Amino acid sequence: MKRVLLALIASLAIAAPAIADPPSRVTIVAVFEPITYGENAFVNGQLLGEAQGGQLVALEQSVAPFTEWTAVAQTTADPAGYYSFKLHPSQTLQYRTNSQGLYSEKAVQVSVAPRIKLKAASAGRSSIRFSGTFAPALDGQSVAIQRRDSRGSWTTVANARLHDGKTFSGRVRARRKTTLRAFFATDGAHLDGFSNAVTVTPGAK
To answer: Is residue 39 exposed (0-12), middle (13-18) or buried (19+ Cβ within 10 Å)?
Structure first.
C-alpha cells in the first residue's frame, strides 16, 4: 500500500506544471472585434520569458466604466508561451490577463452590437406590418423603424418597444414600394445596431 501511495505522489508531481520565474512581459490582443451578439471573439497573447510553457494564465473582465475587475477563466500557456481565450460576451467588455501576478501590458476591449432581424409584409394598400427579434434581451428598450429614401438616407418613421426585451412589431403607413430597417442606438453597453433591410410594396401579395 505504501508503495502505491508513493507511486501516486510521484506521478502527480510529474504531471503538475513546474513553476517558472514570472514572465518578463504578458502581451494581449483582441481578435474579431467588434462583434455582433452571438459571434465569437478571442483574447490571445504570449508570456515572454524563460520556461513559460505550461504556466497558468488568468483572464479578468470589466464592464463600463471599467474600474473593477472580475476573474472569469484561466488556461495554460502552450510550449512557446502563447495563450488563447474563446469569448461569448453579451455586452461590451474590457479584458486583461495575468500570470504569477504580472498583468498584461494593457487591457483590450471587445465591443458588442445587438443582433436584430426584421420581417415586413403588406397590410393593405396603405400600410406595412413589421415584426422582428432582438438579442440579447434588453428590457425597457425600443428600436427605431427607419425608411430609406431615394438618396439612400434613413429616416425614423416609427418606434417599437421590445416585448420581454426580445421581440417587436407594429405597422407603418406607406402607399408605394418602401425599404425598412430596424435601428438600435447605443445604450453604452452595446454599439449601434441595425437589422437587415426589407423592401415591401403595399397592396402586393
So the answer is: middle
